[in-house]
Amino acid sequence: MGGRGADAKQLASDHADMKLLLAKLRAAPKNAPGWLKTVQMLDRLLAAHIREEEDNIFPALHQHLSMRENTRLTRKMNKEGLKLA
Prior knowledge:
This protein is mostly helical. It has three helices and no strands.
């Protein structure tokens, strides 16, 4: 899977940015002047991050896994999704 190092670096950067924005939101009162703008920034970052994972990273990962590994991964992701629902 070409570019895996670059993908991993970008994901780590995205995750760090999201954690910083979440920390900023937790620390600020909801009526602070920049609070809504920070929420909007986080929303855009999450949407782009999710789109990148679903359109590029996960399909490339699935191509490199066996049918058995894909089944196990899908089952595990579905379980995690149910926990969040």
